[in-house]
Amino acid sequence: MRYALMRLVRGKARGLRLLEAAERGDAAEALDAIRRGADPDFAGPGGKTALRIAAERGDGHLAWTLVTAGANPSPDPPGGGSALIEAAKRGGRGAAEVARVLLEAGAGRSDRGEGGQTALIAAAESGSEEVLEALLRAGADPNLRDDRGRSALHAAAERGFERGVLALLEAGADPQSAWPGLASPLALAAKAGSARALERLLARGANPNARDEEGRTALHAAAEGGKSEAARALLEWGADPNARDREGRTALLRALGSPHALECCRALLEGGARARGEEGAAERPVHAAARSAPECLALLEEHGASLEERDGRGRTPMEVARESGNQAAALELEKAMRRRALERVGREKALERERIELFKQRVEMEMEAARRSMQAEVEIERLKREYAEEAKRKGERAAERIRPSRVGKR
């Protein structure tokens, strides 16, 4: 009994020495500890092994030393998360080297950690292109899901990891991947604001108008985050700018409550969103803007919205702004109303000036016509006189020719 206890104590001491050497990145010291009897898979507090420490450090040389000395590349650690998953979480070139060492040594490509996470999902979450590509080359399944139903494509899309999205799609990941209660990869990429990742997914067949359980599309997701470039990309690929979710809210209404509301609303309006909203809707865009995005009021008005529209409760935007205590919106609406009043006065003055100008032109035309009429009468009188004079002269010439002949007859 005493001998067994002593062996246990010595084994633990050797194991701790191995872990300390791994923490320092001292491959030679770690190898010496194993040669002196340390278990290469000795797990310290939290189930951490020397190989997991090497993975966390991104130390490929240490990982190779431990594997060649007998460390199990694919254990089932009590703390959850194999060395391969730890390398995927860390990311970077060093982690990619660790992953290659582990995969060549037989690490399970589908090993799972806490929450059912695979190494491929971990690499997608960390944005590690090198580790992700190493796993895919080794044959990792891109469509495996964790306990929440997330695949590596979900993780890459949520991060806006464009290269990861492309690599996973080329490896056979499903762009239409759906799971109850889980957003689609397209919606996650839209929320992240990654237009390039969206384009990759859409080019591989993702439906721009697919809806989740709440009736929201990817465009709703982009609008909620105020992601204008993502919204433009979706609209270019045929997303419906006026689709309504189960609450009856369009992407434009969602955008009005988001950061960067102005640019996102501009993208939606230019893409065909109706500034006036829907007839009979409980809330219209101008009312949403009066509540939370006064900077968008002028833009909405430019695209045809009326600042005097009434919502489902019969309130004007000014009433909504005052009720919500949005002084900035109330001030913006007052300015807009004054501007419109001035514009109306200006239009009335312009119309009056136009009427006066038309009257002047009509008077001038009538005067010109009168002058021409008078000139015509004068010309007619002149012609009459000339005609009378010419007739008189002809008569006199005729009389002169007749007079001599009469004298000869006598």
What does this structure look like?
With 410 residues, the chain is mostly helical. It has 20 helices and no strands. Helix 4 (60-68) runs parallel beside helix 6 (93-104) and helix 11 runs parallel beside helix 13 (218-224). The protein starts with a helix and ends with a helix.
* H/I helix tally: 20
CATH superfamily of the domain at 1-142: Ankyrin repeat-containing domain
Work out the strand percent: under 5%
Question: What can be said about the biggest beta sheet?
Answer: none
Let me know the number of strands: 0
Overall mean pLDDT stands at 86
Gross geometry: elongated
Secondary structure elements and their pairing?
Blueprint: H1 2-24, H2 27-35, H3 50-57, H4 60-68, H5 83-90, H6 93-104, H7 119-126, H8 129-137, H9 152-159, H10 162-170, H11 185-192, H12 195-203, H13 218-224, H14 228-236, H15 251-255, H16 261-270, H17 285-292, H18 297-302, H19 317-323, H20 327-409
Helix pairs in contact: 1-2, 1-3, 2-4, 3-4, 3-5, 3-6, 4-6, 5-6, 5-7, 6-8, 7-8, 7-9, 8-10, 9-10, 9-11, 10-12, 11-12, 11-13, 12-14, 13-14, 14-16, 17-19, 19-20
Overview features:
single chain, 410 residues, mainly alpha, Serine Threonine Protein Phosphatase 5, Tetratricopeptide repeat, 20 helices
Question: Summary?
Answer:
This protein has 20 helices and no strands. The chain is mostly helical and 410 residues long. The chain has a domain at 1-142: Serine Threonine Protein Phosphatase 5, Tetratricopeptide repeat (Alpha Horseshoe), CATH 1.25.40.20.
